[in-house]
Amino acid sequence: MSSGKTLIDHASNPVKSKLINGSTGSATGYGDLEDYIMELQSRSLQNGSSENDKNGINIGNSVNSVINGETNVDPTELLLQLAQKEKDLILAAELGKALLERNEQLTRANERITEEYSHKLEQIDAMFKQREVTSFSKILFVLMNVHLQPVV
């Protein structure tokens, strides 16, 4: 069942996203994750304070009443609750997706940095070996000159 609102307006821009609360950000940007988390936290606070709605209907009791065949529950309220739960699920799914994308970015960056570090380490090792060879050659040259000089 769709409530008509979606978490992200994908038609506007595949990179820029629009959250339900109206803020925008890139789908993989760090600021966007903060927006998602803030949205989720505000939803949690709203849901916590609205467990008992204005009419005094407890959500758990509403579901139990419907299951038990009691019809004193307002169907509109149930639809609103279902729509809210759907929005929460969509929000959680988008948050999970954004976190996975961010994790992939960080993994790629980490691999790139590791590769650069390994390359620089190899360069340093090669320079050290070259210096070692050069020093060894100089020592050999000096020793050979000493042995080749006539003793007087």
Automatic annotation (TrEMBL):
InterPro entries on file: Spindly/BICDR_Dynein_Adapter
Alphabetical keyword list: Coiled coil
Keyword Coiled coil recorded: yes
Coiled coil: 96-123
Entries under PANTHER family matching the protein: BICAUDAL D-RELATED PROTEIN HOMOLOG (PTHR32123:SF13), BICD FAMILY-LIKE CARGO ADAPTER (PTHR32123)
Protein name: HAP1 N-terminal domain-containing protein
